[in-house]
Amino acid sequence: MNYFKKILRFAKPYRRYGILNIFFNILYALFSALSYAALIPMLNVLFDKTKQINEPPTYEGIGKLKDYFEGYMNYQVTQFSGEDPMKGLLLAVGLILFLFLFKNIFNYMAMYFITFLRNGVLKDIRNKMYQKIVDLPISYFSEKKKGDVIARITSDVLEIQHSFLSILELIVREPLTILFTIIVMFIISVKLTIFVFIFIPIAGMIISRIGKSLKKKSDRVQKEQGEFLSIVEETLGGLRVIKAFNAESKFYSTFKNSTSRFFRFSNSLLNRQNLSSPTSEFLGIVVFGVLLWFGGRMVLLEGTLDAASFISYMGLAFNILTPAKAISKASYAVKKGNSAAERVLEILESENPIKDIDGANEKMGFSSGVELKNISFKYENDYVLKDFSLRVEKGKTVALVGQSGSGKSTVANLVTRFYDVNKGEILIDGTNIKNITKKSLRGLMGLVTQDSILFNDTVKNNIALGKENASMDEIMEAAKVANAHDFIMNLPNGYETNIGDSGNKLSGGQKQRLSIARAVLKNPPIMILDEATSALDTESERLVQDALENMMKNRTSIVIAHRLSTIQNADTIVVMSKGEIVEQGTHDELMKSAKSYKKLVEMQSFSS
């Protein structure tokens, strides 16, 4: 129920639809009970039990309500029909048709309004989840499988709609239908109704015992669904490698094992769930059978109940069965929905450790430099950077070099505040970046990574990502700086060409130049280049390197380099090893010192 309350808060913006649903459900429940009670006058006409009454009866209190109702209906029937019983029958049938018609109209109106609430909640939960996914730090998703996250925003949210939100239809309608029906049943026969109530709790206890393990079984199903969606996502992302290494059968086997587990878990869950309907129906029929015996005894032997009232009473008793079954099914749905809600709320309630502090400043300009002051950082247990200090003056280019795992890319992740330092501080113009809003901090920076991250959209929209409402002239100018304009113009639709998923319609060099054009258009004062040329062939590297040099003019740049030939003109080269600086200086100074940097250069020269 705790999860249900948390999900229900999303219904607040749509409460007017909920109120209208409740209003029409009350009318539905009332007309549902009255429609069966209206059978009495019709049956009296058929059984020729209608008494000739020339004056309307007098109301003598709630205890005599049944007699008053019967007397009033007999008065109306006899006044309408006179000596012709068919006219009386026509009136009784017309009344029943009228009541059933409006019962169903009110039912439709109640469902009509609840639809807006259910789909609105579904939309808002998905929007909130997507907003949270974008907001959460990169570290959160290094621990989660993408397929599992996709499963939560799709199938788990749908499960909430089918379970929790379907209950909203039942909360008012079914209990009220039962309540109004029971009131009418009490009016017809108190003794018979009390007898019925002895059996209902027994049936309810049996039904509730079946559903105890549903949440656990549902949780297994949803986790396994996240598992095989992750396999699909990894397969689509690595299809070239899978085919190149003839690993299709291995991946198929992994996927087949996952779907087999999903098959078993789903069968177990659904079979347990399906047991609820026949069980509740059989128990209902048992109650119905006992009721027939006891009520028939009252009609045939005791004479305390007339036949028309008893048949109408049986209709009312049957009218309870349908909402009672719906409520029992809803209890199963809640248990199943709890598991989905738990998985959805795990993301929605995750705290982002990297957030703006109260009173964080908007920093719009950059004047002096970036400083990393005695910083230490670890992803898990071991420190990747230890007491690391570095200053990058405005307008200067600082290159970070070293073996893989020396902490170069970590510096880029910390300066952009994708992660927060464990010790020390990072300053921009003397201000700790934790005191600057994330949006304005990242607004000062442009990032070009080794993997060109592009989107399934046009060339134009990919370049314009960092600058809303950029003009076509600005986009083309950025592309020219990035040496990308010529190849773009040779594409089928120029700047309007769709580049496919992850830009797969382009070569590596073309993708990288689009990434650079995107950074150029943003025009940030600080540029971070994370091994931007390491994955390129020689010709593409030359074009990209020219583009990078064009971009870095008059900018503060932090360059993480794999190919040392690309950073010889840097103002400062910092050589890193195991998270520490081992030497720094210009290219010429470091070559003369004949230490780590010279060895790295010679190794690359020899290998090339």
CATH first level of the largest domain = Mainly Alpha
Give the radius of gyration: 37 Å
Uncertain stretches? none
Strand content: 5-15%
Write down how many β-strands occur, each being a DSSP E stretch of 2 or more residues: 10
Name the strands of the widest sheet in spatial order.
Answer: 6-7-8-3-9-10
Shape: elongated
CATH architecture of the largest domain: Up-down Bundle
The number of distinct helices, counting runs of at least 4 residues, comes to 22
The span between the termini is 66 Å
Major beta sheet summary: 6 strands, mixed
Secondary-structure-based class equals: alpha/beta
Q: CATH fold name of the largest domain, please?
A: ABC transporter transmembrane region fold
Structure description:
The chain is of the alpha/beta class. It folds into two domains: 2-348, ABC transporter type 1, transmembrane domain (ABC transporter transmembrane region fold, Up-down Bundle), CATH 1.20.1560.10; 395-406 and 441-607, Rossmann fold, CATH 3.40.50.300. Helix content is 63%, strand content 10%. The protein contains 22 helices and ten strands. The chain has helices spanning 2-8, 15-37, 39-46, 65-81, 85-135, 138-142, 146-188, 190-210, 214-237, 239-244, 248-274, 276-302, 307-348, 408-415, 438-443, 459-463, 472-481, 485-489, 508-522, 538-552, 587-593, 596-607, and strands at 369-378, 383-393, 397-402, 423-428, 431-432, 445-448, 526-530, 556-560, 572-577, 580-585. The strands form two sheets. Strands 6-7-8-3-9-10 form a six-stranded mixed beta sheet, with helices on both faces. Strands 2-1-4-5 form a four-stranded antiparallel beta sheet, with helices on one face. A hairpin with a 2-residue loop joins strand 9 and strand 10 (580-585). Helix 8 (190-210) packs antiparallel against helix 12 (276-302). The longest helix has 51 residues, at 85-135. The protein is elongated, with a radius of gyration of 37 Å.
